[in-house]
Amino acid sequence: MKQGYLFVETSSSHPGLVRVRTAFESPLLSADRNADTTICYVARFNDLDAARLHAFSGLRHHMIDVDSGLFRVSATEVIAVIESIALSHARVYLDPDMSLQARDQLDRRIEMLRRRKRRVDRVWQTVGWIAASWLAFWALAGI
User: pTM of this prediction?
Assistant: First the structure.
């Protein structure tokens, strides 16, 4: 497990596209960034590879280029997907220029994604309990 940062960039030269990148040191302190790009969000994860995998999985329908982490989706949606990942993480930075309406929309979307994941988990736990009960019944029945 490698600790690191998962961050979201937008570019004024590519409207409607968002890039998800990783770094082992804070991207906010990096001096080698392009002036055309803007960092909208940074989160620190204890398992960076797993976080990237979960983020890309949650955004798979919007993917343009997996190698460069490029997606055709709003930055708000990308941030919501990353925030809803069920891994230990901490929000380091959220663009202060984000409007209150966008922040409210972000909070609602994060909560919706978390509820959806909990619901899917409950369904699979129920399936597991039913299967285990069925096997226990047939084992006790002697067949």
Answer: 0.84
